[in-house]
Amino acid sequence: LGVALADKQEKDLADKPTANVAAYDAFLRGEEASGLLTNTDPPSLRRALAFYEQAVALDPAFAQAWARIGSANALLYGNGIPSPELAARSRQAAEKAIALAPDRPEGHLAMGTMYRLTQGDSGRSLQEYTKALELAPGRPDLLRGMANLEMTMGRFDDALAHQREWRRCVRGERR
Q1: Cα–Cα distance for residue pair 36/145, rounded to 1 Å
Q2: Which of 43, 53, 55, 130 would be 27's cystine partner, CB 3.0–4.6 Å?
Q3: In this predicted structure, what is the pLDDT of residue 35?
């Protein structure tokens, strides 16, 4: 395509999240079921969770799948099913993702989502989202998460800036 990528982008594209094809297939089925975690209705999240859990059963070191388990449980909690079990599973999965891949943004996004939705801790959530964005600047899911958090914190100018950057990313526009 003739597109120049930064070293970090090339490394990210070359990284394989798992060597287990069956685990990756289960993960992708989870992504489809959840619409990359944009389908936040409980039935979609439960279907996605089953696939993500299948992925980590096949490859316990699959950090991205652990992160999705953390985020999906937090989203279930935040969308009308608040239970201590969901909050605990969200935290444990996010911690596992960070332990397995501390230099990847997914675990920090999951931890930030857990703090925001299960603990109501905007400050800790902001720290985790900031860390995720430091690791992967300009990634649309991180920008969207940060914008949503900033809106709830009343940081409207920052939220608007992240929302605009998110729009540019999804449209494929350069800064």
Answers
A1: 13
A2: 55
A3: 86
Q: Which two tokens stand for residue 118?
A: 């299960």
Here the tokens at position 46 are 């439960």
DSSP code, position 116: I
Q: Over 90: is that where the pLDDT of 6 sits? A: no
What is the amino acid identity at position 34? Answer: S
Residue 19 contacts by C-beta under 8 Å, 6 or more apart in sequence? 59
pLDDT digits (tens, 9 = 90+) for 84-100: 999 999 999 999 999 99
pTM, two decimal places: 0.88
CA dihedral 134, 140, 141, 143 (to 10 degrees): 60
Quick check: helix, strand or coil at residue 11?
A: helix
Helix 105-114 × helix 84-100 angle, to 10°: 160
